[in-house]
Amino acid sequence: MVTKHRRLPVLFCLLFVAVGLAVMAVGVRHAVQARKTLEWPTTSGRVLQAGVRSEQIKSRDDQRRERRSTYYYADVEYEYEVEGKRYVGTRITFSEGQSGSAADAQATVGRYPTGTQVKVAYDPDAPEQSVLEPGKWGNAGWLLLFGGLFSGIPGLMAYSMLQQPQAEPVDDTIASRTLGEVLFKERILEWQPGTRIHLHRAPETWLTTIVGSVFGGFLLGLIIMIFLAGFIFSHFGLAFVIKSYVILSTVLAAGIAIAFAMAHRLRDTIIDWNSSNIRAQVGLTVRQYPLNQIEGLACRYPGNDNAGDAARKLSTKVELNVDGRAYVLLETEHTRRQAEQVRKKLRAVLITLAEQLGVPWAEEENESPFSRFFSRPPIRNSERKEQS
Prior knowledge:
With 388 residues, this protein is an alpha+beta fold. It has helices spanning 4-36, 102-110, 140-162, 170-176, 206-236, 238-263, 339-357, 371-374, 381-387, and strands spanning 42-60, 66-82, 85-89, 117-122, 130-131, 178-179, 182-183, 187-192, 196-201, 267-272, 277-282, 285-290, 294-301, 313-322, 325-335, 361-365, 379-380.
C-alpha cells in the first residue's frame, strides 16, 4: 500500500513513465517498419537530383521577441522501375527527419550525386514505397533511447518507493536514536561519557543513490535543455538535441551521485576512555587519535540567513574537532520553531561530554557563502560563564 507521503512522488514518476512509453511506442513502430525493409526486393535506380534543403520557421519567445529556427533536410530524388512501371522515390531511410546540421545533410547528399546508379529497395505490396538504405532506423534509435531513459529510470524509482522496507520496529529505531530527548540521525549504540561512546550512521543504499541521482540528473538536464533546445534545435537538429541531452544529463547524474554519496557516507565514531583513543570512520577512511588530540566540541545551528517559515526543516550538528579535522558526531533535523528548544537540550549533552573530554565547547552558526564577512565569534563555555 502506498503511504500518503509517497503518493505524489510515485505519481510524478509514473507521469514520466507514461511519456517515455509513448515515445518508445513511436520508436518501436518505426524500428519494426525499418526492419521489414530488409526483406524488400531490390532493383536498380538512378539519382535524379540531390541537394540540401533548409526551412526557416518563425516563432516568438516569452518576451514576444521573434526567433528564427532553421531546419536542414537531405533531399534526394531517384527513379526506378518495377515490372516495367516507372516510380520516383525520395526516402533514404524509413524513419527520417531533419539532419543534425547543414554539414550532416551535405554529407548524406554527398553519397548520392546526381546521375549515380543506386540500388533501391521497394515494398512488393506497394512499389511506390521505397528506400535507398534498408534496415536503417534513422531517428527511431534516438526515440527508443530517449523513451527508455524517460520510462526506465522513473519506473525503477517508483518501484523502489512502492516496496515495503524490511525495517526494524519504529519504537526501537526511535529509542536507539534518541539522546537527551533529541532524535538524531545516528544510532546511539553506546553513550557512557567517561567510559565509552559509540555512534553509527549507516550510508544510503546504492539503489537509492544511483536511481535518485540518475533521475535527478535527467530531470535537471531536461529543464536545462528546455531553455537551450530552441537555439540548438534550430542550428543542429533533433538528433543533436537528444545527444546533447543524454550527455548533459549523464554528467549531471554523475555529479549528483558523487555529492549525494559524499553527504550520506557511513559514519562511525568510537570514543574509548579506557584505551584513551578515538576511532573515526567516514566512508572508507578510518583514523585513530589519542584523546589528548581532541581540540574541542562545536554545536552548529542554523543562522539568521535561514529565517523564514517556522515549519521549515533545518539541521543542527554536533562536531568533534580533532587534529585540525571536524567530525560530525550527531545531527538532528527540526523545524525553526523547535530550534531554540533543541539548542537548550544539546547544551546539556555538550557540557557533559566536554567535561569528560576536558575540552572547550562552542555554539556556532552554520556557515553560508557570505557568513565569513558578517559572522560573529563563537561563544565559548568560559565566556558564557562570565556573561552569566
